[in-house]
Design goal:
Elements lengths: L3 H27 L10 E6 L2 E6 H22 L2
Antiparallel strand pairs: 1-2
Amino acid sequence: MPELTTIGRWLFFLGVGLALLGGLIWVSSRAGLPLGRLPGDIRIERGNVTCFLPFASSIIVSLLLTLFANLLVRWLGK
């Protein structure tokens, strides 16, 4: 069983990472980036129901996160 300090450290970094991701999303929306309004994103509205399928935005975010993860792994030397 891992030590509590190890678990605490992972939870801390997870929280910091989530806060940074939230800040990045907030800044990108303020900067006018069209995430959620790209040509491949689908929005269906019928009366009181709205269905939103952000296909293109999901692909772009996935590519950026993959690039970031690869750079981080190379930087840490693993």
